[in-house]
Amino acid sequence: MSAAESGDLTVRSRGNSLKKTTSTDASAPTTGDASSQKPVVENGSTTAQDKKQKQKKEKPQKEKFVGKQEAKQGSGGGSAGGKGKKKMEGAALIGIDVAKEVDFPEWYQQVLLKGDMLDYYDISGCYILKPASQYIWDAIHAWFDIKIRAMGVKNCSFPLFVSEDVLNKEKSHIEGFAAEVAWVTHGGSTKLEKKIAIRPTSETVMYPYYAKWIQSYRDLPLKLNQWNSVVRWEFKHPQPFLRTREFHWQEGHTAHLTKEGADKEVLDILEHYATIYEELLAVPVMRGRKTDKERFAGGLYTTTVEGYIPATGRGIQGGTSHCLGQNFSKMFGITVQDPSAKEGEKKEPLFVWQNSWGLSTRVIGVMVMIHGDNRGLVLPPRVAEVQVAIVPVGITAKTSDDDRELLHKEIVGLAEVLRAVGVRVETDFREGYSPGYKFNDWELKGVPLRLEFGPGESQGHFVTAARRDLPQKESKSTIQITELNTAVPALLEQIQKDLYDRAKKAFDDHHKHITNWSDFVPSLNEKNVCLIPHCLTEECEDQIKDSSKRTAEEQSGVPQDEKAPSMGAKSLCIPFEQPAGIEKGVTKCLNPQCTRTAEAWCMFGRSY
Ligand SMILES: [Zn+2]
Questions:
Q1: How far apart are the CA of 298 and the centre of ligand 1, in A?
Q2: Residues at Cβ < 5 Å from ligand 1 ion
Q3: Residue 358 and residue 356: Cα distance in Å, rounded?
Q4: Burial annotation 194-224 (CB, 10 A radius, 16+ → b, else e)
Q5: Ligand 1: distance of its center to the CA of 588 in Å?
Q6: Is residue 22 pLDDT above 60, yes or no?
Q7: pLDDT tier, 427 (very low <50, low <70, confident <90, very high otherwise)
Q8: How far does residue 579's CA lie from ligand 1's centre (Å)?
Q9: Cα–chain-centroid distance for residue 544?
Q10: Cα 519 to averaged position of ligand 1 atoms, centre (Å)
Q11: 196, 162 contact by CB (below 8 A)
Q12: CATH fold for domain 381-494
């Protein structure tokens, strides 16, 4: 099982529980169930059964293509067509025409496409990251690289391909991936003697070389990371950034002499992940540990940052940092001599302690889902490629060419003032578009601040500023030109802070402490995640999942996104910050079917 699947798509449940749940539960991790997920992609050709599966599963994707065409028509001024009922009244033609509260999946897709973040590709589950989203990933990459280099981590690059023998070396590990491994079977028209896998993750790729490179305790710690993409040939409903067949991430793999060294690193990395969410993306997360049921297979323990999507009331795993213990070093024979052995003394070799940790482009999807609104993307200033757009206004048919040129010169001057203090700014001199069209366009793209500059502003020596993160009526203010170089950076920081504070309020308001079982499911249905006193056993988690599935009656009338209605709650994490109120050996586990006492407050929720 992937160590470093971590940041990403899901933490897979271990062993039997996995098989038990996947076939019936749409919320279950994306693996297992070989019966419905034929893995083998043989150089474009598939077996008849594969094709059938593919057609069935890929249908939603085709519908999405239609969505894209609609988007194009919309921007050309035509009717967006389709699902008339859901359309927002009076929505700008180039804008989002489905309300976030009404049809969340459709809204999400439109925001990404019309906000110019990504495009669909002709292979289902694969997406093109356009410059606006690649910029965000690059910003995270640059920030995180500095942090991990300071910890002694070095970047490297292992090959994309894995031989079948090596991939199969560790049975329980590969078990979790077998159904979604993509294989290369041909070179040109020549069939390969042995098929070659495309990495679903890199444990088996890297650890044989760790065994070779780590010869002495002096070679420790070994701390390597790679920025790469991996392939998991999923057949579940794909979702941009959240569930994709190829995805970009970083995967760190380290080896330590002592458990203490490994333990410390696990938490240091987790804190960096939390900081990426909180400080760069303005997204609050909860830090905690996974239960045994949800922890990374083969690992010793898993720590996690857990986000929350208010629009759907679902939790989302944001990134995970695992201590693998000595399990993998035993499998791969990664050992060193005991440094405490005296000259000539024979001591048993020590197995190294290993960690793995990963964060994927999923972070971008979480950010979009949380901040975006019915006018499109809302980007936090710290990761926005364009932080400020300056739009000329007040130019009419009567405006002379000289006056127009003068105004444009002034705007270029304003942009230079801002660039000099490090603000990423664009001037919008596009011909043939009205200011109103341009306003909508920058709003759709989530640019945090718009400055308007026309004859009135020029005469009064000020600019009109419009914040993207506030409702239109409250968004405007004026800034004196003499104060531009300090006021704009300050305003961008204020926007960053306000985005976080609003998201944090929604996060806090929807994390409920539940001490009566009868409140649990109603609270989930009100789009909350719930902290409950829990015994932390797997059996009890399974019972809670079953008993929190919605019944058909409950679903009636309430529009939900496609998965939520039938989904049971699973444990998201055991928060590091534990509220008071649990008396060990006295406080009961909240699940009425369970006779055990509570070990800790555990957060449960419906989740991605
Ligand atoms: Zn229990």
A1: 24
A2: 535, 540, 589, 591, 594, 596
A3: 7
A4: ebbbbbbbbbbbbbeebbeebeebeebbbbb
A5: 8
A6: no
A7: very high
A8: 18
A9: 26
A10: 16
A11: yes
A12: Rossmann fold (3.40.50)
Quote the ligand 1 centre to 607 CA distance (angstroms).
20
Fold of the CATH domain 511-605: Translation Initiation Factor IF3 (3.30.110)
pTM: 0.84
- Please give the distance, rounded to the nearest whole angstrom, from the Cα atom of residue 516 to the centre of ligand 1: 14
Given a cut of 50, whether residue 63 has pLDDT beyond it is no
CB 252 within 8 A of CB 357: yes
Q: How far apart are CA 228 and CA 161, in angstroms?
A: 12
* 496-509 mean pLDDT: 98
pLDDT in tens, 444-484: 999 999 999 999 999 999 999 999 999 988 999 999 999 99
Q: How far is the CA of 33 from the centre of ligand 1 (A)?
A: 27
C-alpha span between 424 and 422 (Å, rounded): 6
Q: Is-contact 323 290, C-beta < 8 A?
A: no
CATH, range 15-371: 3.30.930.10
Please give the distance, rounded to the nearest whole angstrom, from the Cα atom of residue 561 to the centre of ligand 1. 29
C-alpha of residue 289 to centroid of ligand 1, in Å: 17
Give the rounded percent of residues in the chain with a pLDDT score beyond 70: 81
Give the Å distance between the CA of 577 and the centre of ligand 1.
Answer: 20
In the chain, where are the structural domains located? 15-371, 381-494, 511-605
Give the number of other CB atoms < 10 A from CB of residue 387.
24
Q: How far is the CA of 288 from the centre of ligand 1 (A)?
A: 19
